[in-house]
UniProtKB/TrEMBL annotation:
Transferase recorded as keyword: yes
Protein name, UniProt field: Transferase
Source superkingdom: Bacteria
One of the record's GO molecular function terms: transferase activity
UniProt xrefs under PANTHER family: LIPOPOLYSACCHARIDE BIOSYNTHESIS O-ACETYL TRANSFERASE WBBJ-RELATED, SIALIC ACID SYNTHASE-RELATED
Gene symbol of the encoding locus: vioB
Organism, scientific name: Sphaerotilus microaerophilus
Stored Gene3D superfamilies: Hexapeptide repeat proteins
The entry's keywords: Transferase
Amino acid sequence: MAPVAPDGIRGAKLMGLLSRAELEAQGFAALGDDVRISDKASIYGAKRIHLGDHVRIDDFCVLSAGTGGIEIGSHVHVAIYSSLIGAGRIVLHDFCNLSSRVSIYSSSDDYSGAFMTNPMVPTEYTGVTSASVILEKHVIIGCGSVVLPGVRLAAGVAVGALSLVTRDCEAFGIYAGQPARRIKERRRDLLDLEARLMS
């Protein structure tokens, strides 16, 4: 009998998800329960990637863990075409949600012209900078947004679609624009819902 997926569909392969055996074969640093990764996602540096429980990573996502690694908590969704890339550390705490085509970079080339760019140039000629990117609990990022190295999004931050996040965002703010600016306060009802879910 084929395994039953959490949503009742028999056979993970019918849904385009990697099986548990395939996930374990990737060699993740940590692999929680109920991890659903599309067989169309690309994973690089799995030994530096920690995955919590109830994690979903959709089609055509790219997780490329550099020396800093990638840490994904529990109850996290990374939607189609999103990417987490760079040498710095990238952390998505519990209940984070990345909408489609979100890009998180923990490394960036120097665009000033003082250095050459791109990974096919020897490092002594480039000026790549790397810094951690931290998304605290309940952060949601709208589609097409970009988060640059060295940014911390405090708990409950919401980022509107097509935004460019270049600096830290304070807790429970709604941010939007290029560069993203705080435009209003986000409600905190979700904290009560979290407490009910976890009880």
